[in-house]
Amino acid sequence: METDIDGGTVTLVAELAGIAVFAASGASAAVGKRLDLFGVVVIGALCALGGGALRDVLIDAKPLALTDWRYPLVAVVASLVVFRFHPALSRIRPTMLVLDAAGLALFTVVGTLKGLDYGFAVYAACIVGVLSGIGGGILRDMLVQEIPAVLREDFYAMAAAVGSVIVAVGARWESQIGHWTLMLIAIATIFVVRLVAIRYRWEAPKPNF
């Protein structure tokens, strides 16, 4: 059954949720490195807003982080929450991995939809979606001096690519399956594939030394 919530509202909610979880992921990584409050908030915010800014540059739009106060506000608040309650997060690393998987899923799906809305071809919208999804994680890993996950974990960008294709192809039947349903299917696919890949250590062949 279709709801009276339009696609723009759905996308906004998904994007703000993605900002919150990516900010929490970045802040968790900063807490793990024992940074101070300022460092935790900066890394959390950059992680949360970086992917969206990259997406907006690719589609030639004004970065929403600079035009809508809700985006940086959500990023800062989520980072502060992690800083305040991090003692309750007894296992920072697993928590960060789950948050990162959620952020990857949300930003990839929203990025792909934005690419389609701006008239990009299917393959181009998928590229925008994947880069939007992995951008925040790359910034986070670089700032905390880690090798970016996308360069060492094969099913990071690949999980994003699978979900992006689902969105881009499924958009043709969006009127039949519904905007929410399409988004949830793609988000769940990316999230599950990413976590299963982590659990079972899926990876492509690497050079032997």
UniProtKB/TrEMBL annotation:
Residues 13-86, 98-169 form the Glycine transporter domain. It is found in: Cell membrane. Its main location: membrane. The chain crosses the membrane at residues 12-30, 37-54, 69-85, 97-116, 122-143, 155-173, 179-197. This is Trimeric intracellular cation channel family protein. It is a multi-pass membrane protein. Belongs to the UPF0126 family. It comes from Glycomyces endophyticus. Pfam families: Gly_transporter. InterPro entries: Gly_transporter (IPR005115). Keywords: Cell membrane, Membrane, Transmembrane, Transmembrane helix.
